[in-house]
Design brief:
373 residues; alpha/beta; Quinone Oxidoreductase, Chain A, domain 1; Rossmann fold; 7-stranded mixed β-sheet; 6-stranded mixed β-sheet; 11 helices; 24% helix; globular
Length: 373
């Protein structure tokens, strides 16, 4: 049964850049008119959460962590029409009004009415979460490493309650970002060649998206040998471990693509040195690179000659996926088990043991850590 009272619950909190994460009691206010309060069931850990802890430039502290997850609507604001109490939802960090200039254009997923929120606050620049009277900020649109959280109803997708909880969490950011980068952002063509740098959940998503649209050569690049099997499960045709060769990753990619480079590349690590390599790994004159990884360092220096030779470099948020129109298609595929998302699920912990997750992430066999509430 829902309540419009303040709820006391546990959440994972970071008090400052580079400081540890602690699980503490917080207070979560009732939702305002366009908001919903969600009882979280399951969450997962994304690279963006790690960079947030380390001091990503847009984050403010104290920070209530997490942005991937799935939960049940506990209560709704008076103006909410798209969901009701008891519905299952996944959070998104971009919205889709379908009426603004960007939404109508069909050229971008960045809605102008419901934009990417970097303030760590709700749309009215206040917070629904506090600890000992002190306001808490969150990562983008919400805070999923919490037993309860509040999110604007314009930043959610209602999903079938029969969906696998862990898999639903994975598609709320990481996997979908990579999948969309190939499907929607690069618009990979049938019969083309692709190189994916970094085979975490995002990179594996890019492989899956490239496979779905009919790429015939999909090269995965990662120093972790254990990612070979994961990549193959999602559709990778060739694997490069740069540590196994005296040649550079760039040379190895070109060897696999007749010396010309691939049609498309995806940089999924956020490591600046790899960006130039991923661009130069594509064909001169028409190669396309999608930058997906978000790192803490600025992307400099950059090999401008790489671009002057006619290649394209494009940034991407959420893989170009529209928050409802496209994500609903991915959720349906997830429900039908069209993706081998079980390959991502390698570790599970209860919320109270959140710090164990960071140790798991250092292990070579770890892809995604699931957090159970």
């Amino acid at each position: 049964m829902s309540t419009k009272q303040v709820i006391t619950c546990k959440a994972a909190i970071c008090w400052g850049s580079g400081k540890g994460v602690t699980v503490e009691e917080i207070e979560v206010d009732p939702p305002k008119a366009t908001e919903i309060r969600v009882k979280m069931l399951c969450a997962s850990i994304c690279h963006t959460d790690i960079t947030s802890i380390q001091g990503y430039q847009y984050n403010k502290f104290p920070l209530a962590l997490g942005h991937e997850g799935v939960g049940v609507v506990e209560s709704v604001g008076d103006s909410v029409k798209n969901v009701k109490e008891g519905d299952m939802i996944i959070p998104t960090y971009i919205g889709e009004c379908k009426e603004c200039e960007n939404c109508i254009s069909g050229e971008t997923n960045l809605c102008l009415t419901h934009p990417l929120r970097l303030s760590g606050l709700m749309s009215d620049n206040t917070s629904r979460m506090s600890i000992q009277g002190q306001r808490l900020y969150h990562v983008l649109s919400c805070a999923t490493w919490s037993e309860y959280m509040v999110i604007d109803a314009n930043y959610i997708l209602k999903v079938d309650p029969n969906i696998d909880l862990a898999h639903a969490s994975f598609i709320s950011c990481g996997f979908t970002t990579g999948f969309g980068a190939a499907w929607k952002e690069a618009k990979v063509k049938k019969g083309s060649s692709v190189a994916v740098f970094g085979l975490g959940a995002v990179g594996l998503g890019a492989i899956s998206g490239a496979k779905m649209v009919g790429a015939t050569k999909i090269i995965g690049i990662d120093k972790n040998e254990m990612r070979r099997e994961k990549g193959e499960a999602f559709g990778m045709t060739h694997f490069i471990n740069p540590s196994d060769s005296n040649k550079s990753a760039l040379e190895l990619v070109k060897e696999l693509s007749d010396g010309m480079g691939v049609d498309y590349s995806f940089e999924c690590t956020g490591a600046p040195p790899l960006l130039t390599i991923s661009v130069e790994a594509t064909k001169m004159g028409r190669g396309k690179t999608i930058a997906i990884g978000a790192g803490l360092e600025p992307i400099v220096p950059f090999g401008y000659l790489s671009i002057l030779l006619g290649r394209t470099l494009k940034g991407s948020i959420f893989g170009g996926i529209r928050a409802t129109s496209d994500l609903s298609i991915i959720a349906d595929k997830c429900l039908k088990e069209e993706f081998p998302l079980e390959e991502l699920f390698t570790h599970e912990i209860p919320l109270i043991d959140i710090n164990k997750a960071f140790e798991f992430l250092k292990q070579p066999d770890c892809v995604k850590v699931v957090v159970k509430m």
